[in-house]
Amino acid sequence: MATIARPLTTSSFAKTMAIVVACIAVAWGLCVWAELSGAAVQLHHHTLYESGRPLWISALIMVGAWQVMTAAMMLPSSLAFIRMYAVAAGNAPDFPRALTLFLAAYFAVWTGFALAAFSGDMSLHHAVDTLPWLGAHPQVIPAFTLALAGIYQLTPLKDACLKACRNPGMYLTRHYRRGVMNGLKLGLGHAAFCLGCCWALMLVMFAAGVAHLAWMGVLAVVMLVEKAMPRGDRIVVPVGVTLLAMGAAALFVPGAIPGL
Q1: Cα(157)–Cα(160) distance, rounded to whole angstroms?
Q2: How far apart are CA 162 and CA 147, in angstroms?
Q3: Which of 53, 137, 168, 182 has a CA between 20 and 30 Å from the CA of residue 105?
Q4: What DSSP string runs through 143-166?
Q5: Residue 1 has what pLDDT?
Q6: How far, in Å, are 38, 104, 188, 189, 212 from residue 177 at the CA level?
């Protein structure tokens, strides 16, 4: 591993963290505004599909909304890693560009997931339109999504990725190098573990509708506790069991789960 640079000055470190926290606050502010103003309805997948817009425009709108949602939901649980990276990078003159590339890579990975989920969601809606049984039982889709998220909570892959997210210092110590491009590599690696840890929980947002404030809040708290709070990994199994129970309720009692 390359030698870690001199620590950031207190003012530089505070400025770096203040910018990231401000981005999170602005993202939540936009989400609250979208919910209260009714604009969030226009971001729901049903609305985007049926808006009559070209598909690429609907995809761009979804991606834009997803950037805000990623900042609001995912960045809080990555603050510990960003803090360690800021300290490790020291006063290197290229640190602002390295941090920019780190964040760009982080958002790019989640954007790729969003586009894949958007495409899969479109296929599901096409199946609903073409398969009479599925059209008559639309509750199957949100129930399956909740069950999938619940099952994934209990898998070894979830556990491995969560351990990496909960111990960012180990990953940073192994992979830190000086230079702007290392920011890109660190962002991709950290985002890959975050994706492996949280993709199933974020998939629930497609069942609830992108920008659904209540679901955003609940899932954001779950991911923050799992990844960043002391002994937060202890809630993984209870959350998985709860999601499975909610999936069963959504299947057998349609309308029982608010927002789905």
Answers
A1: 5
A2: 19
A3: 53
A4: HHHHHHHHHHHTSHHHHHHHHHHH
A5: 46
A6: 46, 18, 14, 13, 39
Kindly provide the b/e burial profile for residues 19-31, where b requires at least 16 CB atoms within 10 angstroms of the residue's own CB: ebeeebeebbebb
Q: Which two tokens stand for residue 205?
A: 């947002």
CA angle 159–192–179, rounded 5-degree value: 130
CA distances, 20 to each of 79, 83, 221, 225, 227 (Å) = 8, 10, 18, 19, 18
How sure is the predictor about 90, in pLDDT bands with cuts at 50, 70 and 90?
A: low
Burial label for 57, CB within 10 Å (0-12, 13-18, 19+), is: exposed
Q: Give the residue from 35, 76, 44, 112 showing the smallest Cα distance to 220.
A: 76
